[in-house]
Every structure is written in structure tokens, then in C-alpha cells.
Amino acid sequence: MIIILKKQADERKVEALKQEMISQGLSIHESEGANTRLLGLIGDTSVVDLRHIMANEIVENVKRIQEPYKKANRKFHPEDSVIKVGNVKIGGGHFAVIGGPCSIESKEQMVEVAEKVKEAGALLLRGGAFKPRTSPYSFQGLHGDGLKLLLEAKKATGLPVVTEIMDASHLPLFEDVDLIQVGTRNMQNFELLKELGKINKPILLKRGMASTIEEWLMSAEYIMAGGNENVILCERGIRTYETSMRNTLDLSAIPMIKKKSHLPVIVDPSHATGIRDMVEPMSLAAVAAGADGLMIEVHNDPARALCDGPQSLTPEAFAHLMDKVTKMREFFETL
Amino acid sequence: MIIILKKQADERKVEALKQEMISQGLSIHESEGANTRLLGLIGDTSVVDLRHIMANEIVENVKRIQEPYKKANRKFHPEDSVIKVGNVKIGGGHFAVIGGPCSIESKEQMVEVAEKVKEAGALLLRGGAFKPRTSPYSFQGLHGDGLKLLLEAKKATGLPVVTEIMDASHLPLFEDVDLIQVGTRNMQNFELLKELGKINKPILLKRGMASTIEEWLMSAEYIMAGGNENVILCERGIRTYETSMRNTLDLSAIPMIKKKSHLPVIVDPSHATGIRDMVEPMSLAAVAAGADGLMIEVHNDPARALCDGPQSLTPEAFAHLMDKVTKMREFFETL
Amino acid sequence: MIIILKKQADERKVEALKQEMISQGLSIHESEGANTRLLGLIGDTSVVDLRHIMANEIVENVKRIQEPYKKANRKFHPEDSVIKVGNVKIGGGHFAVIGGPCSIESKEQMVEVAEKVKEAGALLLRGGAFKPRTSPYSFQGLHGDGLKLLLEAKKATGLPVVTEIMDASHLPLFEDVDLIQVGTRNMQNFELLKELGKINKPILLKRGMASTIEEWLMSAEYIMAGGNENVILCERGIRTYETSMRNTLDLSAIPMIKKKSHLPVIVDPSHATGIRDMVEPMSLAAVAAGADGLMIEVHNDPARALCDGPQSLTPEAFAHLMDKVTKMREFFETL
Amino acid sequence: MIIILKKQADERKVEALKQEMISQGLSIHESEGANTRLLGLIGDTSVVDLRHIMANEIVENVKRIQEPYKKANRKFHPEDSVIKVGNVKIGGGHFAVIGGPCSIESKEQMVEVAEKVKEAGALLLRGGAFKPRTSPYSFQGLHGDGLKLLLEAKKATGLPVVTEIMDASHLPLFEDVDLIQVGTRNMQNFELLKELGKINKPILLKRGMASTIEEWLMSAEYIMAGGNENVILCERGIRTYETSMRNTLDLSAIPMIKKKSHLPVIVDPSHATGIRDMVEPMSLAAVAAGADGLMIEVHNDPARALCDGPQSLTPEAFAHLMDKVTKMREFFETL
């Protein structure tokens, strides 16, 4: 961390600032040019609050050199993390597809879709029981009853299940869930992240709608700092000015995450685009970019889906996509 | 709502879609051009899920004509809402300034700042006990102990108090809080919004970091649909590509909100800019744009603030600002 | 196009508006609900100025149903366009890689890089003589002298060449250039687009830094409306709030363009990411997403490049990438 | 400028980099921590190309400490610049309103509007003859004939005139124009900026639709580096994800520009919002934020305007606004 001091900074205040930094275990390296005087902070600066230093009247600017995350940082953990969900591995060369409906609607729907996605090669089953909807007048999910249907589909197919949590108080209902999803709107629901840091179930952390990659890793750090290092990241599109699609899928986040972190990262092309026809090309592109998995919405009758029908694949289209994804993964192993 | 059908749409499927809409209480007006066939839906379309219709294979596009919010909509409530916080009124010509520190740190700090902001003319006192911080290693607030200090300052000064809630389970601690703030990261924490809809305390709903004005009003609608119509909106800057400031303050949101909604809207220039020197010009601009109030961070010793020091005013600078704001409000009454 | 009228609109003004629309060759279909009265315009609305109608005091809103572009619209030209650059075809299944340095620096550099990229399988050669640099103090390119060096490299290798134009007055210098590039900052330099519409050389139209897909197609329409239908689109990253990379590569633009337009679209991962290590994964992802080509920066000595060294590949890395791209294209033909 | 070296960087390459920097007239201050080794560059770094250094394989990152602009930088020119347009001063306490139609349509329109805006207190007259329109099918302006009408209105009223240039080749037509506007789409049309740097007429430089404040100042620097220091900046709204308005007016740019630069900055609320009713509140807010002027669209018959009618004020509404603006300026002088 580099502190750029204002010209003619009061020498006593500079001294006080230096002592404050030293008392946090850092050492200081000074440097002075014609127009600038710098203090370089040496040591573990991840605990230093940049804006606290900015508040000091003698400070003109502060620049961070080291990343503010530690547990999620590849520098301190060079090997890829492999996260186990039930008996499925994700990361470090292990690739998995999660399939299933946006929301759990009925037993028939869940069991039918579950069997079809398993048959097509999905290794995990998704289904939402608690649905974050922009409008209070939209279908909000079946809640506890929905989770029961999801667990029945798990029993029927043997697939580990993934579902979204919206509030820490619901955690007792998630005991048999294999992978707990934190949605885009809750990526910085820090109270929820702290609770998830205390359990040892894997967490699927979706990127916030307008989160930087650093903020996303800091949210992973919240969970990991609490003791739960089983975090899988999920890119699901970010908000831009473009209006022809739901979000803008940021596939370049994949190689960037791989550079900065050891955590696995999967891609959700269904929510990213919001358009059925775009799911296949974006899935293949995600594989090519190095994703560790995909999360795809599948519905037995998209036109009647209670949620996100326009982006859901039929089981047939999903099987078709899985065939391509599988061949592509094999091809990439030879590349 | 206008449904644009695909060319050569299967007539039976068109009929089924029309029946589905009619069964929701809507009537239908058809229109056919050389290249396009439209279904106009007439009635209360706020309950219609646009994306559900989009999922239908015969549909090319859907456009909403009416706003999806009702309780927050000025069309159905032409008069400005006036919200009472303690004995302070906000909205409909009533203007109020909220002052206080970003985070509650000690009794001395709270009491000193509270007395100073009251003296300067603030009508409400702010102070954070639960702090949403990007890093798990940053100061997270004093929690319950902080709220106690805030309530002591309330007792000492008589000012109603505002503080942020981060999880619905903390609600019992907020019994004596006068105005409960929902922060930018929780604007779409729908479980929290639903709980706040059940109480009858006023809620200060900050705009999400990258929320559209419509999404913001839909979040207000969540609280109002639950029965609590005491919502005050707070613009606090949005995320853009600009890096020289913390956020981009969107003052044009004020006249737009006034057009679309009857709810009061205040402005937080401290968080929006993150820079002390910009608080005054942006406060005056907010008043000129028609804001119903301001929320300003004030700290007795900004360089030692545990949070957001760079944007905090000293009590002296705040008094100076209040003087200008008061004169400006008086001037505007003559304009 | 749908015009939503205000309640209680003056009947004479409604009549006048209808007559105005009819005089533009459109017919009108009226529709009236409880809260809304609509005028549907039927006919070629691409020439109707939406904001002109919005200006009418009796109008509440206007929604476009048909796209405002015609020549670039797939609806009126269902087959993929194939654009010929020299003897190289792009689009409609024809794939081409453009390689070469960001800026032309010397004869040795150009000839060396040109031979290396040809050997590796590039079908076109790039090199910038006119460089749009953010700073007036940065290297601005060799201008006419640079173009001469590029044409020498063309002669030496037989590769058709691509280079950027920054002002219509430079056109005479571009006579032997095979593909003229319009850079991201000039995508809406309409005077330049109009001049390029008058020639019959192919144009490589980069997406504006913050352009919507519709605006991009409208800029293509400018060139095509002038008579030059040889337009190739190039996605090169858009501006978002993310700061870890130069831009955010929007690969979902590829399937979206394919849906809306018949024009070929290629991808420039070098400018999009600005980071050498990200060029390969993003190139492969672009191929998987359906791109018709790639444009890659290659420099014989990136550390000494006068421009954009951090994103340039060495000829060896480029050959390695080309090998993968070629195998991947072959694989995709079997998929 | 701080260069952060990679761990285990080759010592000879570090030496070569240091020599390269020294040869540019910089001196170097080294600093080494447990995890990081830094080179601090001391001297005039505005000529150093940050990305050139980034391209060096031994470099992990580079951070700029000093701004890359010099002529536009307040540090080297602490007094406000006052720009003279005809006999009107702008900046340094001098405030001016520019009024007039979006596009010049006829003699009657120009003369009528010109007289009305003068009467209401505008000090300059605007009118577009070359119109940058998104669609090639929209009205493109009257070009040379339009300029003649504008100059007639100048003669009739004595008001200095402002109009947009779209291509340097049109400069001869602008001889009698008093203030030449560079539009948002041409803010980085560097060939045009260079030509404008060679003349000594004042330039009104609009902010690019998605430009950072630094990029905007760098474009001013282009003109100033050429020798023309008469630059007035104009904030006109930036592109964000918000769809209810045309752009998002960034009033916080005003105090930020005032901090970084000595150049005057005015605001165009008409283009920023695109909505007539929002022009007044945003104009008053701009004055409160410290703007040196306003540019307002006025049309004698907005519903018939050939361009941007929805945002144009009638002469009566403009007179009403001018009255408020004038009173507000007087009030601010007493504040």
C-alpha cells in the first residue's frame, strides 16, 4: 500500500500516521520526489482500511498494491481448489453441469425434469423454493414445501441438489441440501455470508449484478474467513446499458478469476442472457473460456413455467446441449 | 401491455394465450398490420408476469405500457405522501436533514456529534451499529451496544434516530429506533423487505447500487404491499464506470421519482461522492433539484473515524452547510 | 410503432397527429382501454423519428415494435452475408484470423511480423498507421509512411491488409488497403461513415465503447444506406464498471447479432482484455460462440512495442493459438 | 508513477527498464518489502506511456500518481480560466446561458427563437446545422444553409453563436461562428481535436457519452497541446443502465472538474434528460453545484421540431426558467 502525502503536510501529523501504521505491524519505506512524498507500507495490508487512511487530512491519495483478500487469493494457495458436492467434484479439472427448473412447482415437474437432466448427463439438480422476484405480485416460490419436493427428486435420482437461500433464518430447512446458492441480490448480504461461513456445506456464490471481481472475491472471503472454504463462484451476467438481453455475460471473468483465485468458477448462461436460443452458444463459449461447470435452466413445459420460462430449455434441447458440451470437453482434453 | 405475436403463430396457441389472459381478468384488443400482429391487454396488468408471456413460443416480444407498481404509483395517489418520523414530517413540502456519524463508536462520540448536529439544525440523528463492509477484516459495527449508545443520544437530544438494519432477525433490537434504514446492498433483500412491510415504522429505502428507478419503486412496493406505506426513498449514488469518485450521484432521479411516485425522496451526498469537499455542492444541488431532505455524515474527528472518514464533515463544516441549506430553502420558497 | 396517448388528449390534436402519420404512408389502428388509448402505426416505421412523436404534448409514450434498421436486418435478408476481402471470404461459414501489430513501427517489424502471422495461418494482416491515443503525448502512428510499410508487407506476403482510418480526408491514402477499419471511438463519426458508404471497399466496423447492439447496427446501416453493403462487425469489449481489465468482452453480442443481422461479426480479444494471458481463452470462447473471425495483436518484441504491448502476443504464442483455433474450427465442423 | 515488479524479476531486465526510464529524464527511487519490489519514477511522468511499461514481462503492475494532463491541470494553473466568446465571458465567476433550437430549420424559426432567448436573458445563441443522428434516415441538418441562417440570427440579435462541427473539413464554414461545439460522439475524434488546437476560436467540448472525467480532460489537453487554450467543458449526461431518461446527468462532475482543472464547465440538461419537465430542476441543480453556464434547447413549436422536440422548452418556459436562474445566481452571490 502506497500513501501519497499532500505537499507541506504537517510533520507531526505525518509522524502520527507512521506510528499508527507501525502499531498495526507494518513497516514503512519513505520516498520523496520533486512533487510527491510517498509512504510505502510493508507487511499484511489486507487488514488496513484504505478509506480510513484517506480520511487523514495530510493524505492526498492511497493506492493498494496487494489484494485485500487472503483465503481466496491464489498467491497464498497456488493449487486449484476442488470442491466436493455430495460425491461430485468441481474444480481442478473436474467439470459438472447443474440442470433443473428455475422454480420448483410440483412433484411431477421436479421428478420428470430431474430424471431427464440426469439421463442427459447433469451431475447436480437445481430448483428454487425461495425466489427473489422484482415484483411482490410475482410467484415467490413454494418455500418449505418446495424444498421437500426437491429432496424427493434427490432421493429418486441420487443427484445432489442445489437451491437458493434468501435468509439465514431458513438454514434449518437446508440440512439435506448439498450445495447452497447465494443469489446475485444477496452477494453482499453480509449477515447471510457470515452464517454460511459457520457451516461446512459448499456454497455457490453468484456474482452480484454490478459487482467487481474484487468485490465478488471479498464476499467469498467473508464465507472463508468464517471457516467454510468450500466456495464455488458463479458468473451470471452483469448489468450494463445493453437492453437486448437480460444481462451481459462476462466470460472474461473466468480467466481473471483463475489468475486471482484458486476457487472454481461456473457459468449460468440462462440467467445471463434470459433468452433460450442464446444458452447453447454461451454454454460452449463458457467451456472454451475455462469454466469448471455450467448451471442451466430446464423445464418440462417452458411456456407454463411459473418463473423464467423464456430462458428455460426443454429436456430435449438440454440433452442436445449436453451432448455438445461433453464432446467439447473431450476435445479440449486433447487440445 | 402489448404482446407482439410471431408471424404464422399457431392459431390454437394464440387462442390458448388469449384465454389465459382473460382468465386473469384482462380483456384483449387485437390489431394486425402487414408485418405484425398485436394483442393489447386491457385491465390491471401489474400482476401479469411479462417474462411468463415471453416464454410462449408464439410470442416475439412483450412491451409494458402501465407501470408494474401500484401503491407507490403517483397515478393512483396524486398527492405527495408526508411521512412522520417521531414528530418530524418529511415530504409534501416538509424538508429534514439527518446528520450523524457513519458508525457509532463510543458514548462520547455519539453524544458530542448528536448535540452538535442538533444545534446546527438537523432534525434527525443517524449512526450505524450494523455496518455492511466489503471486507470481513474491516470494523463491522458495535451491534446491540451501538444501538444502546444511539438511543442514549436520542434521549439526550430528543432527536428521532435513523439506523441501518442488515437482517430481519435483528428487528427486536430496533424497537425504539424511529426510522429503519435499508442499505443499498439490501434493496433487493426481499425477505427483509417483507418483514418491514409487517411493522408500521417508517422505512428509509436506499437505492440499490445499480438499480433502475423502476426496481427501486418495486422494492418500495414490497414494503407497501405488506401494509407499511411509510417509505422514504434515498438516492445515494449509482455505480458507473467513473473512478474518480465513489459513486455517481443521480440527482435527476429526484424529478423522475416525483413524476412517478408520491413518496418522499432524500439524498445522501456523503456516500454518493465519498469525498468531503463534494458534500456541500452536492447538498445544495440536491435541494435545488427538489429533494425532501439530506442525510449527511458528521464526525467529531474524521481522521479517526472507524468508517468512511474521508466523506465525513466536522461539526463546524456541517453547521456551515446547514446555514447555507436553510437559507437556500428559504430562498426557494420565494422563487 | 405504438403511440400511447395521454388521458384527455385534445381530439383535434389527436386528429392532426394521425394525419401526420398517414401523410408518411402509414396506416393507423386505434385501441382504447380503461386507462390507455393507443395508436398502432402500420407500415415502414424505420423512417419515423420516435422522439419527434414524443415531443407532441398529447403523447405519453412511444414504443418501437419493428427494428429501425433495414439493410442490416436479417428479416429482410435471411441469408448470411459473405464479405470478400481480397481473395479472403468472411461470414456464412468462412472464418478468418487477422494478425499483426497494434502500430506499424518499422519495415523490419512489419515484414517480420507479417511473415510470422502468415506462416501461423492468419489470412489477413493488420497494422495501425493512424493511432487514436487518449493522450496527445503518446505515439500517434507513422501515418502515410506507416501505410507504405504496411503495403510493402502486403506485397511481401500476399496477405490482404487491414488498417484504421481516423478521418475521411485520409481516404486517398487507403487506396490499396483491402479492409478499412473504423475504430471504437469513430463508430458514430457519421461524416466518416457517410464517406465510407460511397466507396466499395469492405469496412470493419468496431463496436463503440459504450454502444448498444442497435446503435452498432444503425452505424452499419449508415454505410449500407450509402451503397456500400460490405460491412464486417467487430466486437472489441464494452465499457463497464469492472477495473481489472481494459474492457468487458461481450461475447453474447455474437449470437444476438446473428439473430438480428446477416452481417459477419469477428472478435478482437486483444483490445477487449488488454492482457496477453487472456487472449487465448477469449479467442477460443469467441470461436465457440460463433464468431466469423478473430483479430489478434502480434508483436515481435512486445516489451518494446510503441503501443499496446501488454496485450500483444509474440509470434510463437500466436502460432500456438492459431494451432488451437484451427483444431477447434475443425472440431466444430463435426459437432 | 510506481512500477511494481514481479517477484524474481531478472536483474538485467530490471536494470534495462531503469535505464529506459532514466533516459526519459526521470529519476528512480527503489523500495523493497517482503512481498513487493517497487520502482518509484520521479519527474514529469505525463509523457510516460503506462501501458508500454505494463508490456514488460518483469512488471506486475503500474500505478499513476500524477495526472497525465498538464495544460488542463489546476495544479499548474491555480486560477480559474475565463474564456471569452465574442464579448461574453465564461468561467471565473462569469456565468452564461446558451439558448436556441436543437437544429436550425428555417429563417423564421431561427430569428424568432433568437429574439426570444435574447429577451429572456440568454447571452449566446445555439443552433445545429450538422446533426449527428443515430439513424441515417433521420433529418441530418441544413449544413451550410443552416449556418447562414444562424449567422443571420447573430446579425439580427448581436448574440454570439454556438454550433457543432462534425468534421475538420467543414472548418472554413465556421469562420464567423463564435464558439465551436465538439459533440459527445466526437469527444475522442482526435483528428478533429488536433485541427481545433490550431485555431484560436473557443471550443465547447462535450463529455463523451461514456467518458471518464480523466479522458474528458485528456481530450481538452489535445486541443490545448496544439496551442488553443480556449476550452469550455460541457457535461451532458453519461450512459448508464437507467432507461427512464435519455442519459444520467452527472452533476458531481462539476465540483470534480473544478478540483482537477481550471477550465470552465457548463451543463446541458436538455440532452442529459431528454425530457422537457426535467430541464428546470436540473438547471437549478447545476447552478447550485457550481456550473459556469447552461445550454438549453428552446423551440418555438416543440411538437414540430425536426429534432429533439421532447426536450425543447417553449420560449415562454425558457423565459420562466431564466427568471429563476437569474434570481438564483443573485442569491448565490449573497450565500
Descriptive terms for the model:
homotetramer; 335 residues; alpha/beta; eight-stranded parallel β-sheet; four-stranded antiparallel β-sheet; 10 helices; 18% strand; aldehyde-lyase activity (chains A, B, C, D)
What can you see in these coordinates?
4 copies of one chain form a homotetramer. Chain A has 335 residues and is of the alpha/beta class. Chain A has 10 helices and 14 strands. Chain A has helices spanning 11-23, 50-54, 107-120, 143-157, 190-196, 213-225, 253-260, 269-273, 276-289, 315-334, and strands at residues 2-5, 27-32, 37-42, 59-63, 83-85, 88-90, 96-100, 124-126, 161-165, 179-182, 203-206, 231-235, 265-267, 293-297. In chain A, the strands form 3 sheets. In chain A, strands 13-12-11-10-9-8-7-14 form an 8-stranded parallel beta sheet. Chain A has a 4-stranded antiparallel beta sheet with strand order 2-3-1-4. In chain A, a hairpin with a 4-residue loop joins strand 2 (27-32) and strand 3. The first copy, chain A, is elongated, with a radius of gyration of 23 Å. Chains A, B, C, D: It comes from Anaerostipes butyraticus.
- Order of secondary-structure elements of chain A: EHEEHEEEEHEHEEHEHEHEHHEH
What structural class do the secondary elements of chain A suggest? Answer: alpha/beta
Q: What oligomeric state best describes the polypeptide chains here?
A: homotetramer
Count of alpha and pi helical runs of chain A? 10
User: Gap between N and C termini of chain A, in Å?
Assistant: 41 Å
Helix content of chain A: 25-40%
Q: Please give the order of strands in the largest beta sheet of chain A.
A: 13-12-11-10-9-8-7-14
The largest sheet of chain A, given as strand count, sense and whether it forms a barrel, is:
8 strands, parallel
